[in-house]
Amino acid sequence: PLSTLTVEGSASIRGIAFSEELDLLVLADYGTFSVDGCVYIIENATELLSQPTATVSPTRVLKGTRTGLISPVDVAIDPREGKRYLYVADAGGNGAISRFNLSDNGNVTPNAIIDHFDRGRIPAGIFLDARGRGGTSGEPVD
Question: Is the model's pTM score more than 0.90?
Fold first, then answer.
């Protein structure tokens, strides 16, 4: 690897997303059997990634009962102007995909949740194709 980062307080990092445009690194921490997972948000990530090794204190952490996060497995960043969302795939409980604002911090409620998956199916990852255009009319699609 070109760089090895250690995140203070992390238990089991599963998903990673990086936005060069926003210079932002986001990590999903699955947690442990006794501790619910969380999401770490690290600003000015390019500087950290240029170092061969570094121990990092996250800029912000999404964690707590209001977040609904139990065992986050993956994250995706929507960097589009006017959107700026963070999507989290969570395998805990019945599973869910939660959407947070990129500026969120702490024990906050997601602004959108998809949690109606078929029995036995839970999110194992997430990929976001957010180029800002879609549909046949060329209008932006959320």
Answer: no
